[in-house]
Amino acid sequence: MKTIIFATKNMDKMKEIKAKLPDYNVKSMEEVGIDIDVDENGLTFEDNAILKAEAIMKVCNEIVVADDSGLEIDYLNKAPGVLSARYLGHDTSYDYKNANILEQLEGVAEDKRTARFVCAMAVACPSKETQVVRGTIEGIIGYEIKGNNGFGYDPIFFVPELNKTTGELSMEEKNKISHRGKALDMVRDILEEM
Description:
The chain has about 190 residues and is α+β, with helices and mostly antiparallel strands. It has a single domain (about 5-194), classed as Maf protein. Helix content is about 30%, strand content about 25%. The chain is built from 5 helices and 8 strands. It has helices spanning about 10-20, 45-60, 95-105, 170-175, 180-194; strands at about 5, 25-30, 65-75, 80, 115-125, 130-140, 155-160, 165. α4 packs across α5 (about 180-194).
């Protein structure tokens, strides 16, 4: 079984990744003893994913997958965007971030609440050029916080086709439609070629 290092310290994210890539021995940075912070100063999700994947690969000389993901809200000029994790401050809770977004969109019509989750993933391998993929899921920002599943902005991201927020979906349901799930499907195709 091929070992893949996933460049994250987020254990919620690792659960999604391991569920989506069961044929690989996926390890977090912590599990392999890597403790470095990569400055995510790229202008795009793709830039940040490449920065992380290549920096971690140089440390461990293994295949590394890194992602950068976030929420783009059209009414807010695609904010929080690449700053999604650091939106309103790095240590600010998502309960507060979600409430703040709902407050900013108060009174905004449904057709103006369009949004998407974006996930760019980079696959860095010592012997190959880094490859990047992007997965997205379209939806709208709901009118209230709903659901206890998932994490981050999931409780406010409403998927009209399912009539639920991503915070109301089981992990299995979410992995089938999520931005990260779509990106991981493409990453699996890349890994199978290696």
